[in-house]
Amino acid sequence: MNESKPKAVILLSGGLDSVTVLATARKKYDCYALSFSYGQRHSIELEAAKKIAKQFEVTEHRILKIDLGQLGGSALTDMDIDVPETQEEGIPVTYVPARNTIFLSYALAWAEVLEAQDIFIGVNAVDYSGYPDCRPEYIDAFSKMANLATKSAIEGHIISIHTPLINLSKAEIIRMGIENGVDYALTISCYAANEQGEACGVCDSCRLRKTGFDDAGVADPTKYTK
Amino acid sequence: MNESKPKAVILLSGGLDSVTVLATARKKYDCYALSFSYGQRHSIELEAAKKIAKQFEVTEHRILKIDLGQLGGSALTDMDIDVPETQEEGIPVTYVPARNTIFLSYALAWAEVLEAQDIFIGVNAVDYSGYPDCRPEYIDAFSKMANLATKSAIEGHIISIHTPLINLSKAEIIRMGIENGVDYALTISCYAANEQGEACGVCDSCRLRKTGFDDAGVADPTKYTK
Questions:
Q1: C-alpha distances in angstroms, A28 versus A49, A114, A203?
Q2: Residues of B in Cβ contact (< 8 Å) with A64
């Protein structure tokens, strides 16, 4: 624990965005990383989160096992729904119902226990998949709710939800990460990575990632199967 | 499933309040009951929820196992904190950080999967323990957030969070439940019930319950150890 910095809870998926957030936040905050085992298709993402949490020397990394897959409704948690290989109209089937709301709710609970007032989440509303719970108006509404929800907020300790990536392009995120020491070879973005951690190269998340590295003029360290 | 009624997700703890909510909601809604195994001190509460869900013939009853206890911070989930026997000043130690936010987030996820637009929660801001996440302003803020969070809300299916008990006294809740067929002998309110389901008689929740039955002029069927 670093006594000179304020504590912050960082939602860490092991993907490109959340790792960039951690790399940036750690300069000013004593970081507590929070990941979830929620029935996602592969555990490679969690292995990536563990390596990254260690590399960036977070004060604590918790992985909560939660029953999100049991509710179904998404290609990311329901094996009966295929991850699409072409871009879809509207909100895609990889959307997990209320996922960010559930993740932020746990972050809020842990922040209260830790007496932290800062929560970081790597949502992005530019190069994103169109998920409703990545938009600024959603984050603002969550923040207002959070400040009415908790004992600590009632006692005057205002909770801030930080979204440092929300208005950045994928290329800008990648440049920010590289400046802050991120090794993107460790991160996983693919919705359908195999057990060796190789990315499919064709899902929406892979497409956004590839384009981001191209636009940033940075070599993409990802291993793609196609 | 009852095709003639709209679907609703009912948060069901097995306590007096949520059971009364279910008994009332089932007249107009096709009910999907949602309970949580979250590291609470006793599983008697979940056994009560199961019996009640069966008695009221809900279409489905899901019990999600979630890692709330792992975050600590409450006498209800942390065995190192005693449940107090006297009334406390301010927000009591039985407060579980962000509990209703986490519960409502899961209800929101399930509602989206079920294509339900109605969620019921038995919060009460009159005879309650002073928890911040039982107040109307909190519920309003959650509702605004929920309607920005989900794919279905974006597509125009507005989610309503119903709190039929929020302005009722405990006595009024008990009268409402009896009119709607609740057998309160099946419900558990105690924060420290023993394995036989007997209530301690002295915790905040037992005190509110006892006074409620007295005020309602109804015999209290609860087995108290003191």
A1: 20, 17, 35
A2: 66-67, 70-71
